[in-house]
UniProtKB/TrEMBL annotation, chains A, B, C:
Organism: Athene cunicularia (Burrowing owl)
Segments traversing the membrane: 31-50, 322-344
Organism ancestry: Eukaryota, Metazoa, Chordata, Craniata, Vertebrata
GO cellular component terms attached to this protein's record: plasma membrane; postsynapse
Record flagged with keyword Hydrolase: no
Disulfide cysteine pairs (residue numbers): C117-C133, C121-C144, C201-C210, C244-C253
Localization: Cell membrane; Membrane
InterPro entries membership: P2X5_purnocptor, P2X_extracellular_dom_sf, P2X_purnocptor, P2X_receptor, P2X_RECEPTOR_CS
Domain of life: Eukaryota
Record carries keyword RNA-binding: no
UniProt-recorded name of the protein: P2X purinoceptor
Catalyzed reactions per annotation: Ca(2+)(in) = Ca(2+)(out); Na(+)(in) = Na(+)(out)
Function: Receptor for ATP that acts as a ligand-gated ion channel.
Membrane topology (UniProt): Multi-pass membrane protein
Amino acid sequence: MGQVAWKGLFLSLFDYKTEKYVIAKNKKVGILYRVVQLSILAYLVGWVFVVKKGYQDTDTSLQSSVITKMKGVAFTNTSELGERLWDVADYVIPPQVGVVLRAQRATEQGEEVAALCDLFCDVCAAGVKTGRCLKDRDSFRRTCEILAWCPVEKRSKPKKPLLASAENFTVYIKNSIRFPKFKFSKVNVLATDNESYLKSCRYSTEHPYCPIFLLGNIVRWAGSDFQEMALEGGVIGIQIEWNCDLDKAPSECNPHYSFSRLDNKFSEKSISSGYNFRFAKYYRDAEGVDYRTLIKAYGIRFDVMVNGKAGKFNIIPTIINIGSGLALMGAGAFFCDLVLLYLIKKSNFYRGKKYEEVK
Amino acid sequence: MGQVAWKGLFLSLFDYKTEKYVIAKNKKVGILYRVVQLSILAYLVGWVFVVKKGYQDTDTSLQSSVITKMKGVAFTNTSELGERLWDVADYVIPPQVGVVLRAQRATEQGEEVAALCDLFCDVCAAGVKTGRCLKDRDSFRRTCEILAWCPVEKRSKPKKPLLASAENFTVYIKNSIRFPKFKFSKVNVLATDNESYLKSCRYSTEHPYCPIFLLGNIVRWAGSDFQEMALEGGVIGIQIEWNCDLDKAPSECNPHYSFSRLDNKFSEKSISSGYNFRFAKYYRDAEGVDYRTLIKAYGIRFDVMVNGKAGKFNIIPTIINIGSGLALMGAGAFFCDLVLLYLIKKSNFYRGKKYEEVK
Amino acid sequence: MGQVAWKGLFLSLFDYKTEKYVIAKNKKVGILYRVVQLSILAYLVGWVFVVKKGYQDTDTSLQSSVITKMKGVAFTNTSELGERLWDVADYVIPPQVGVVLRAQRATEQGEEVAALCDLFCDVCAAGVKTGRCLKDRDSFRRTCEILAWCPVEKRSKPKKPLLASAENFTVYIKNSIRFPKFKFSKVNVLATDNESYLKSCRYSTEHPYCPIFLLGNIVRWAGSDFQEMALEGGVIGIQIEWNCDLDKAPSECNPHYSFSRLDNKFSEKSISSGYNFRFAKYYRDAEGVDYRTLIKAYGIRFDVMVNGKAGKFNIIPTIINIGSGLALMGAGAFFCDLVLLYLIKKSNFYRGKKYEEVK
């Protein structure tokens, strides 16, 4: 490359070079091209920008903190437990996890007493086999001796819900969220000085910023029957969704609640239906011997799951979407060129005009 | 389309076709175009690539595991509880959640004794109404009999913090993270053999890889006063942010801590201010009658929230950003064309040259 | 701009304008251009669309709910605790967090009795110094009086694992996930009516939808030795990964498990190795004096971490990727132009043909 080339290159830097176009006075292809252009424009403006907000940068990884608290008192009278009164300290185990104790069977148990149990029955699983074989005095069946807390827990399912009146208990769910990318925070509690409102309100679609939920409502919204669920317990998923358009006012960024039952996805009788767990209270008698009360608790557990998406105008996705739209226009022109040069009558003529042959 | 057309199409496959340009020796439009080009280039290189790292693929969904442990002992002497010593087993309830018990009122209660209570007062909420009406012997007010754990808990707010000395307690927070997309893991604990460092250090900006925090510091960094917070409890959000550029050395990927108070977002007196919960210890006396100690605990709860973003070079976003920049150049040329063809004096002349009319 | 210009602008709306090309019959540059085009096409189709599924919109922020339950019974005989039987209610503390108690040392303690302790030793940290100085009667060392729960806990490490037989305990882990963007849900439990399968199965690669894990297997898969871990406890991370291509059948969206140890990242002796916590059981004797049993529990904690990625066809990323590919083609043409116009012999000739000079 000689000096002349370099000089030409430099001089031509500030000449404006514009592509030469051939005007094909073919209205069919012309209209086709306009239709293609308008379609792409409509897609770009209508779908990408208006519907999908392609001019926004999005953040889906939100920080969330959930505080729950339950309220309510119930009175029960059962043969197993006698008359009992239940308040928050009794039915929420452990205090912070948001669990409601619904039904319970208690068994007073001493430590490590040998128990008799059928060799082939499943119940033996709750103890450790000593290896000794025993004969049942009454029948002629042979059984294995096991070590277990005695008496062994009865494997009966609860007949009626213990805390049927828990339908009117309330759950307070406070959820603070933050979108770290946009440094935007919000809480699902009304910013009010009216203390009595936040004590007496109940959540409904009319009161979206009241964080107090009736237990019965939650279960109903999750599509379950409270009395049926009260029998065997269950897990309720409370999904809080924050879809926020941060180009609008912060007051337009609202939580949406949805409730679903998580434990009985498939069949009523499957292992995954219902919710229960065992725990024990430990006592010591006057002689210093430990014993415990084993409790099988049927409860309603709440899983509060928070997710969200925030969008805010950002130049980079805007340009990417405009750019890809423009590139698409180029593809549209390429398609119309194909029509012009190969599919219409006078295509030979246009081909000669578009492509200027040089020797 | 005849055979000739197909033949021409095939033969021309290896001809190089290049767009024909018209050189408009108009320095104004030429300079305008260069300015547009340079602006787009500056935006692309400076903003998209250098500042926003548009050449990187990002991952914001990190896996995180947090282990916490508290240490500290305090001694209290109150009229309600007498002299008491508090160590970890006493003030962390339940053991794993990272909760500090701060103040507590205990009420010894027997089971289900009928209690008298004003019909219209709120306190009755803690019991179940039996439906019987009673007359108060001393006054002439009528009251309803309720079933409740007796005596009913006193509704007084704590006067002074119980564990004021908890300011010197320490919290150990270990956080392991993993970005699954890039298979990158890191821990917020210094990788050292020096065991005594990890036992004696305290977190500060000089010691970012020491995972032991002074309780008093956490509260101060969250913008609260410890003694004020000790009275009614509270919830502290500990945000750990990992912003990692994985094109650099792993040692440049560091956690950043920020502390905020989550319970009193709006007003001091609102329902959402402070943090307390009730739990009970159950005892059985010599006659086998159950009774309980109801404890209202005012505590500090920690919510450790981890989020992060990792970026690493990836060809696809790089090409997308370059491509959208190039498409933008096309838009710039289109804009300069408009100027050349319709806005300058000799535009008619240039229009004729750019668009070659064919019959 | 006159009326004529406007009229021309309008009339020409439906003329099809197509770029004029110059055919350079230079096979070298022609082939170079085809190679560039094919490379870009191969990258776009092969890498972006087939391998990276660039036609899909992805969602990495999934909602997840985890329910765990443990099963198993063990019998121990130690000098500290005597003969004891352990079932779920005894070794899972608190009931919901999925913690296995592995080894434990119990200390019966009365409240706030003065204890003697060496001034310089670390053990004093468990009490509050009264400020009084005492002389040890037997030796001549001086010590400080401290207030503490007495007797002070012995600082010995456990010699042998208490629940060595826990290797055969089972953990039931149910994980429901939901990708909110695509409204797609799935559970890691086989959708079967066969109740006995879900009771007797054990997870393995052959049974990916059996949610019951053997404790020993989990520890082995995490790369640890169970008996060694049983001594000092540990934290096991259970990662469940859902990588779902929602353009395929839902049955192709399967969970992948991986297990890792989270507590001993760096060295065996560091502060972060092992897992233990202290808790207390409270008793009251006949005279109404409280005392407690302090338990230091060495346990295995499970951290179930769920992450996932779902992809589904979406027009916007498809167009963005095609668009950026097309823009790249333009860049390829620009590069070939440079070769044609400045790097080959006849470049001067082609330059004159490509750029039509106007006065």
